[in-house]
Amino acid sequence: MRMIKLVPxxxxxxxxxxxxxxxxxxxxxxxxxxxxxxxxxxxxxxxLLGAVVLPAQxxxxxxxxxxxxxADAGCTASVESxxxxxxxxxxxVTVDPAAGTVVSETTIEEASVNLLGVPxxxxxxxxxxxxxxxxxxxxxxxxxxxxxxxxxxxxxxxxGIQIPGGEIVLNKQVPTDMGTGIAVTAVVVKLNGLADITIxxxxxxxxxCMTAPPVS
Length: 216
Hints:
By secondary structure, the chain is an all-beta fold. It has one domain. 0% of the residues lie in helices and 63% in strands. It contains no helices and 18 strands. Strands 1, 4, 5, 6, 14, 15, 16 and 17 form an eight-stranded mixed β-sheet that branches. Strands 2, 7, 8, 9, 10, 11, 12 and 13 form an eight-stranded antiparallel β-sheet that branches. It has a two-stranded antiparallel ribbon with strand order 3-18. It is elongated. Keywords: Signal.
């Protein structure tokens, strides 16, 4: 993971501008068919001192199916906890066996994190997307992030930003535990030993991929 230290002179900190952060995972090519697809998307979650103070919400729950479907948790107008305020959070998972794909997406209009001793962290216009098939996986994050008076520009997955007593991980992308898939988290705020705040999560996997026979 690439680490950025939050200092004003840093070239990747651009003050006074709304700069989108985007990144996409590499794709792998093949021709295959899946037995079934899985995915999950949720807006935000907060753990404080090892206890869940805000369970993942809104949350599609874990989807696992071989049938065409859309799991839409609907849009939640606001989510609040002692550390996080967020507005208009909309997660969904769409499975399309005919196309051989599963796409999970979470959008959030705005979110703010307030931690004692840390500059205000504000996220706007967030979209986290995870897509998977037997042929490819991809992850994508779009957002505007401000820490204090600085706007952060990040073009890569898995970038860490140091903050007092912890770090922020932007565009976290990791393989899913099972299947051919990817898990994408737009923003993770970690305050060492105290809090873990997750903002914008989407994951998607194709399972039981078998190489398809050639078309005659």
